[in-house]
Structure formats: structure tokens, C-alpha cells
Amino acid sequence: MEISVIGVATTKFGELWSVSPRALAREAVFGALDDAHVPLKNIQALFVGNMLSGMLGGQEHLGAFFSEELGMQVPAFKIEGACASGGLAVHTAVNSILSGQYDTVAVLGIEKMTDHRPEDVATALMGAGSEEERTSGATFPGLYALLARVHMKEFGTTVENLAAVAIKNHYHASLNPNAQFHALLTIDQVMRSTAIAEPLKLLDCSPISDGASALLLTSKRVKSQKSKDKIQIVASAVATDTLGLAQRETLTELKATREAAKKAYSQAGITVGDIGVIELHDCFTIAEILALEDLGLYKKGKSAEAIKRGEVTLGSAKHCVVNPSGGLKGCGHPVGATGVKQIVEIVEQLRGNAGKRQVSEARIGLTHNVGGSGGTAVVHILAR
Amino acid sequence: MEISVIGVATTKFGELWSVSPRALAREAVFGALDDAHVPLKNIQALFVGNMLSGMLGGQEHLGAFFSEELGMQVPAFKIEGACASGGLAVHTAVNSILSGQYDTVAVLGIEKMTDHRPEDVATALMGAGSEEERTSGATFPGLYALLARVHMKEFGTTVENLAAVAIKNHYHASLNPNAQFHALLTIDQVMRSTAIAEPLKLLDCSPISDGASALLLTSKRVKSQKSKDKIQIVASAVATDTLGLAQRETLTELKATREAAKKAYSQAGITVGDIGVIELHDCFTIAEILALEDLGLYKKGKSAEAIKRGEVTLGSAKHCVVNPSGGLKGCGHPVGATGVKQIVEIVEQLRGNAGKRQVSEARIGLTHNVGGSGGTAVVHILAR
């Protein structure tokens, strides 16, 4: 795979009441163009990762919408795969370059969620779940609470273990100027926060967010003047599982994560031990515990205590830092943007441009983006 | 470009009150697998073209939804580009094969529209238009009526010319068992039908439809046992224009169609004169007149009389038959399915399997799928 990331940018994530989707898209894409020192006219296609523009915004021609807004009249596509829309957009863009159809393309991940009533957003988000889950009134905190209960029963994972994920990711977010949250959390704050779906509390859940992130990708056919900042995508892999939890063989893992990771390691020719930095899909604290095990960093039932011991925290990590951006929990989760932002963060880390949250000596990074409760998983591996 | 279409199938299009989206998807995809004599386990990825599952159905994880339903747990993607979603899904699938990531993939175009109130469907369809158009209360018949008025003023096109498109396409549909309409139209019937947005009458407009169509695509890396039925995709091209009519340089053409066609002819190494059969996007009768000119079959202002003279009608065509399936007008327009069904029809024509609507001696065919009022256009060229 010979794809270079030559430009990256992200807006601040958060409750961006005064910023329109158009303005978010411009900030992200023009930021990535500036970063790459590439003129707009060089972009040959636009891939938009977004989940909710139709349900919340009434707009379902989103590729052409943003290509017009950005002044690039190029082939444009919206890729939807629930909360994995951003990761799928990157995968689709990578394949479009490898195909030879396009040489240099832009990927925009974007979501505007706070303009709507929280009840409407929660209902729309259940569009990622199975029909049975939606019609029976399940919510995503409820589904991940089920996964947490199974993990606690099988492996002795505790609510304090869950809290440790939130505390770590808020610590990392406090070092990230673009993160939604900058306040550090204490174990008491997490434990005393409102119960959302037991055992998950408010501070176990990622927030509702606005934001946009963008990448410029190019093939080795194109020479870039800024080679020092070029980071390679060395694997791009997708896997699916059943939409609903009821149909799964097991609830102690997300099979799609395991399969996407296996394919990605094979494509990249690496093992999990080679990875120095990971951005993974911690939509709820339990999701980070599951992902560290499903990606192969820890054996089943062993990641929760490791997180608590600081083994994947900046400053105390053994060999791999997880979610240095703050993750979905601390940095925010504008759903279509998340999978793209994860790659922006890994690129900044591998370039050595991550400021106070820089992971030292990382040469290989991984991103992990999930749709729904594991119906889709996307894994990318990047290297400098 | 070395992509073979090895299997095709489509459901009947129409008001399919008793058939669920799940059942439509199964009929189309399993039909294509049967057609290709390929087992389900050979399919490595699924590309779904759909516009309205979120707005009308509350489901926004559609790739994983259908991969579960079809029992193929493979990487799955929903591609959205308004009424061009089906064509964009094919383009994306083609690129994913050319990239080397997947060898044999399924494309499913699907839409279920009649389960909802017509007002809600009309509102949702305006998700393909610009914000200004939506918020000012414009509808798609209204936008295409504007295009018709300009064409009438510039070139002397008449309402009888518009009617001739509907009459031809209903004639073709009467020969197609899967078409929504089988009744022939007379000029009097069209002229006396209810005014929707002058000069467009009810019988100038494509209907609201349910339906699904599927393709199996494979690379030349895969050997197929049924080579006699293999049809090649020799060009796959996409172009965009502004979403809204107000921003266009001219209203006498759809620039995106012209640009996508130009790219496609170049990829295929052919000229428009080589094409023997076309499925094009006649969402309104004026759209067929515009498309025949924008694709280069006729000079500007010359296609309307040619259609009326029967130059693109089965049985009397000079050298190219247009919309032998009945087009969107006669065969129906389940929006996400349309771009896929067009390719199904061309494949059947090139194989010589089109029954009563068979175009004689066509060796090269073209499909043309449009999103909104021309914000997106997708052109594919196929050859046997």
C-alpha cells in the first residue's frame, strides 16, 4: 500500500453553537491544504464521512454539497457507516487512489450534533443499531452497559476500572487544545456522576459534539515537496458483524475489531508489539477495555487493570500510548469526524508535532473506528 | 479498466406494499448470485446505494444492516449521493476492485419509498437540493420545470416534445416485466394529465417507487466459469456541479453530465457514435432531452424533435435505443436502485437476454445517473 498523508487539520471539537457545518468543513479542508502546501485545484475527489446529515439536517446530497461549498467541483461521495463513517470514508478514499482513478484526494469527516434536541440526537444515533434494538427502546449507553456487565462478570472488571479510562482520557484531553474537555477528572467525580445505564455513569460516556477533520491523501505517483511531513498509510481494513448484540456469538469481544485488526496487521506486515501509539473508539469507557483486548494489546480480561496501572497513559506508558488526543471521551465524538480525527492525531504524533501530548519515539500508529455496538470496525495503520 | 459484471438481478419496480427492504435486498443479491453461479462466500465486500434509509427509515448503518441480512459478514459501505447513490456505489465498487483490496464484490441499489406519506417523501427528496431551494419551498418538479422553460425558450422545444419522451418510455416499459407501468400512453393522455409544475404534467414525472437491483463485479484476477455472460465495465466516471440551479453558469445543460461523459469516453477510448444502447436519467421528460444533448448524441436543441421522430425508440431507432427498460419514467425510480438497475438493463441488452425489448446488435452501452438537478452525474460504459 503506497498512500501518503500529506495534509491534516481538525477543528476544535465541542459545542460549537456559532459555527455552521459549512464553516467547519472549510476550516478542516482548507487547513489540510495549507498544511500540505497544496493548491485546491490539485484535489481530484472528495470523500465525506458523515452519519446524520439526512436525519438531523435534511441534506442527503452531501458530497456535492461540500464540493460546492469548498469550491472544488470534483467527484464527491458521502460514505455512511454509522459512527464508523469517517473511517470508512478514509478506506474508500485509499482504495480510490490505489485504483488509479484519482491521485490526490481530500477526506472530510464532519458532524453537527448540538443544533438539535438531545432526544432527537439520541433517536437518530439509534439508526446505528438493529431494528429490534431500536424498536424495543434500547439506547447506546444501554447496549454498552450490557457489554460492560458481561465483562465484569467474566473477568472481574470493576466500575473503578471503567473510571480509570475516563480519567486517563480526560488527562490526555487536557493537553490537547482541540479537545472538547480540558478538566481533569478524579475517581470520586466519575463514581458520583449520574447513572446513565448501570454500570455506566455520565462520565463513562463520550459527549455529543460538533466538529470536522480533514486529510489529504496522495499516491506515490505524485511527488510532494514536503516529504519530511509525509506519513504513510500502510494498512486499511474493514470488517462487519451483526448489527444487534442479540445475534452475536459472544459479548466479551467485538469480533469486527478483531478481524479488521488481523487483516491490518497482515497488510502492514507488523505485529501489535510494533505499535507505539493508538487512537481507538472509546465511545464508552468499556469500549476502550474491549478494544485493547480485541486489537491484541492485552489478553482477554487483562486490559482493565493495565489501564488503571497507567500502562497506556502518557508519561507512564510501557510501550504504547492509547488515545493521546483524549479519545472520544475527552476530545469529543462528532460521529462522522471521529474516524478522520483519529488519523489526524496519529499523523501529528508520528510527525512529532503533537505538542504537550507528544508520544516519544512512536514510529507506527494505529486507528480503530467502530460503528454502532460493533457492526462495523475500521483499522488503519500508519508509519513514518 | 478490467472489471467484469458476472451477475445481475433486479426486483420488479413499483408500489410493493407487501415487500420489506430486507426481502427486496435478498431477491436482488441472491438473484445476482444465482445468475453468476457464484456462492455467497465468494463475495468479499458489499456496496449499498441508498438515499433515504435514514430520513424515512431511521436506519443509518445500512452496509452492516444488509451484510447481516444477506448472511455475508464482509466489509460493507453505504454510498449516498442523492438520486445518484446507485451509480456512485458502482463507481466506488469498481475502484475498490481496481485497488486490489477486493476481487469479487456485490453492489446493491435499494429504496423503499411507498411506505411513507407522499409529503414526507417529497420533503426527504429535497435533501438532494440546495439549502436555498429547500428553504424557499422549491420541489424537484419545480426545478426541472425551470430547466424545461429555459429549453423551450432557447430552442423552441414544445410540451408535445416532452410528452414524446413519456410515450416512448412507457412503450418500452410495456415490454419490460419488471417495470412499474405497463400501460401505453397517448399524446392526449399526457397533455390532459394534471399540471404539477408547468410545463411539467403528472405524466412528465417519474413515479415514487420501491425496488432493488444488484450486480456482482469481479476483477480479471478471478476466473469465472460463465465467460459468455461476462460484460466488461470499460469506463466509470463521476462529475459534480453546484447543488442549486441559481449558481449555475447555464441552465441549457447539466454540466456534470457533460463532464462525466467526456471522461468516460476518454477512459473507454470510444466516441458517442459507438454506443448502441443507453439507460439515462429521465426523472422528468425534460431530463432525457437534456441528457441526450449533454451526452453528445445530439447537438443542443436537436434531441427533442429526434425523440419525437422515433430516432431512439425500439424498432425505429437509427443507431441507438434510449431507455429500453422504460427509464425512470416507465420502469420506476426507487432512487438508490436506479443507477444499479441501469447497469442491470445494459448487461441484459449486451448479453442478448432482454426479451421483447432487446436492442439488436448493441455491443457497447452507456448508463447515466444524476443526483438532484445535476449536482452529481455518473456515467458508466459497458461492452461485450
Which keywords apply here?
ten-stranded mixed β-sheet; 384 residues; two-stranded antiparallel sheet; 18% strand; 12 strands; alpha/beta; globular; homodimer
SSE map:
Two copies of one chain form a homodimer.
Chain A: E1 3-10, H1 21-36, E2 45-49, H2 53-57, H3 62-69, E3 76-80, H4 85-98, E4 104-111, H5 118-125, H6 131-135, H7 140-155, H8 159-173, H9 187-192, E5 195-197, E6 200-201, E7 211-219, E8 231-240, H10 255-268, E9 277-279, H11 285-294, H12 303-308, E10 321-322, H13 327-331, H14 335-351, E11 364-371, E12 376-383
Parallel strand pairs in A: 2-3, 2-4, 9-10, 9-11
Antiparallel strand pairs in A: 1-7, 1-8, 4-7, 5-6, 8-12, 11-12
Helix pairs in contact in A: 4-14, 8-11
The most extensive contact between chains is: A-B, 58 and 59 residues
Largest sheet of chain A at a glance? 10 strands, mixed
Separate helix tally of chain A:
14
Shape by Cα distribution of chain A? globular
Helix/strand order of chain A: EHEHHEHEHHHHHEEEEHEHHEHHEE
Quaternary structure annotation: homodimer
Helix content of chain A: 25-40%
Low-confidence segments of chain A: none
Any idea what the radius of gyration of chain A is? 19 Å
Distance between the termini of chain A: 14 Å
